[in-house]
TrEMBL record:
It comes from Bythopirellula goksoeyrii. This is HTH-type transcriptional regulator NmtR. Keywords: DNA-binding, Transcription, Transcription regulation. One of its GO terms (molecular function) is DNA binding. Residues 3-97 form the HTH arsR-type domain. Signal peptide: none annotated. InterPro entries: ArsR-like_HTH, HTH_ArsR_DNA-bd_dom, HTH_MetalResp_TranReg, WH-like_DNA-bd_sf, WH_DNA-bd_sf.
Length: 116
């Protein structure tokens, strides 16, 4: 396989692991500190099972790593800059018209919260 196709394929697989709104939310929640499933459940409003399934995908793609402390498992970003990159990626969203004001506000709030 030509090197460019091999590199593009690997990048596409990585982006596919990130291509879910809840996974992006989980990554942003892990921006500043490691957290366990219970904390991520509370922060995201997801069920424990759903958080665990998303973390499984992120672990499989080496986006997050885990640390065990007794029965608790804590997750953290392998590369903290990934959270910054995702927030900066919002600059590439297509321009919105006036009726998309609610979405525009949501994006500004997310950027503000996640950029702290």
């Amino acid at each position: 396989m030509p090197y460019r196709l091999l590199a593009a394929t690997e990048l596409a697989e990585f982006l596919r692991a990130l291509a879910h709104p809840r996974r992006i939310q989980i990554l942003e929640e892990l921006r500043n500190d490691e957290q366990d499933v219970a904390s991520l459940k509370e922060a995201t409003g997801l069920t424990q099972s759903s958080v665990s399934q998303h973390l499984m995908v992120l672990r499989a793609h080496r986006v997050v790593s885990e640390r065990r402390e007794g029965r608790r498992v804590f997750y953290r970003l392998r590369t903290v800059e990934l959270a910054d990159w995702l927030v900066e990626g919002m600059d590439f969203l297509p321009p919105m018209n006036q009726r998309d004001g609610e979405l525009r506000k949501a994006i500004r709030k997310a950027i503000s919260k996640w950029s702290d």
